[in-house]
Specification:
There is one protein chain. By secondary structure, the protein is of the alpha/beta class. The chain is built from 12 helices and 19 strands. The strands form 4 sheets. Strands 4, 6, 7, 10, 11, 18 and 19 form a 7-stranded mixed sheet that branches.
Length: 358
């Protein structure tokens, strides 16, 4: 079958090959035919080494498709079912799951170290234990979440990661209050979803901050009340909050320098929400006096900060009701052969979300 493979960490191009085989099918597993997958910035971060991932590997974790076959012991799924890929499935038995913090379950991460593909040259890993830049993939049954018939594959794919992460940061983690002021730093697919989440919550002012003009323009279409470049952020803070700072600031880049900017633009007693996934050697620093004196809440948000299955259902309900716009987030569509063009478009900020159709 065909798949896009990164041979070594640090390479910036994928090679589309036709000699890849999905392996590992058996009890508790399902085989999926991927129909659509989104290109998420985390895929690029894994390729560059910012996020840890063994290589060679197939990127992609934001996918949807159909069940081809189910292994022994799998219940609730059968061949032909339409599903989205959950890259962080909950085991239901660990302490985090029992506390209701299923987004912190580590069971899914354990799969990342087990190859789920092979080719004549040897084993191939799937990013985050999945790997959706391929025609077929074998995953644990918990990674295949049934979707209603009225949800297109490309919409389901977005819900599988970026939309859930951004909406959840605003709704689950920060719990944005109606009438509040919000700033979102980084307006790619996850940042746009954060903006939509803040709008759903009733924020009065939503300032989008991004260096790319096209992304700032897009942010206004998705609910931002104002969009500024990083150089204009301080002026926006002064005009909108009289210099006090925003009630909520979301960092959706994954770098300490933007996290520090977010902290400095959060009002005393306000909330800084870290959504971007960054590198292990990039340290965010605050001094002990400001940490105590400013009483700013620093809240990391992992995969939307809540039960992902409930978050999927909420995203679908909001989309059906017209409260969030998911179709317009897909700015580019390519076939698998166009994956490297899609990567370039993401790196330059030209695209919000690219749908790879398989």
């Amino acid at each position: 079958m065909r798949a896009a493979v990164l041979h070594e960490i640090g390479q910036d191009k994928l090679e589309v090959l036709d000699d890849v085989e999905a392996v590992g099918f058996g009890p508790g597993k399902v085989r999926l035919r991927i129909r659509a997958t989104g290109l998420c910035h985390s895929d690029v971060s894994a390729m560059s080494g910012v996020l840890p991932q063994p290589a060679p590997f197939i990127p992609g974790h934001e996918g949807a498709g159909e069940v081809i076959d189910v292994g022994d012991g799998v219940t609730g799924l059968s061949a032909g079912d339409r599903v989205l890929v959950c890259w962080l499935p909950a085991c239901g038995a660990c302490p985090a799951c029992k506390r209701g913090q299923t987004q912190l379950c580590l069971a899914g991460f354990m799969n990342a170290g087990t190859p789920n593909f092979k080719r004549p040259g040897g084993d191939v890993f799937g990013f985050a234990g999945t790997g959706t830049f391929t025609e077929e993939v074998v995953v644990g049954a918990g990674c295949a979440v049934p979707i209603p018939d009225d949800v297109p594959f490309e919409i389901a794919a977005l819900i599988g990661c970026g939309v859930t992460t951004g909406l959840g940061a605003a709704i689950n983690t920060a719990k944005v209050e109606a009438g509040s002021s919000v700033a979102v730093i980084g307006c790619g697919g996850v940042g746009i979803s954060t903006i939509q989440g803040a709008r759903v919550q009733g924020a009065a002012q939503i300032v989008a901050v991004d260096p790319v003009a096209s992304r700032r323009e897009a942010a206004l279409r998705f609910g931002a009340t104002e969009a500024v470049s990083p150089d204009e952020f301080a002026d926006a803070k002064q005009r909108i909050t009289a210099g006090e700072g925003f009630d909520y600031v979301f960092e959706v880049v994954g770098k300490s320098v933007t996290a520090r900017t977010a902290y400095e633009n959060t009002r005393r007693g306000g909330t800084l929400c870290i959504v971007g996934a960054g590198a292990m050697d990039d340290n965010f620093q605050v001094n002990m006096f400001e940490l105590f004196f400013d009483e700013k809440r620093i809240l990391p948000s992992m995969y939307g900060g809540g039960d992902v299955l409930r978050s999927y259902e909420r995203a679908i309900a909001l989309w059906r009701a017209g409260r969030i716009d998911l179709e317009s987030m897909i700015t580019h569509r390519v076939r698998l052969d166009g994956i490297n063009d899609a990567l370039d478009q993401m790196r330059t900020g030209e695209s919000l979300r690219t749908c790879i159709e398989l």
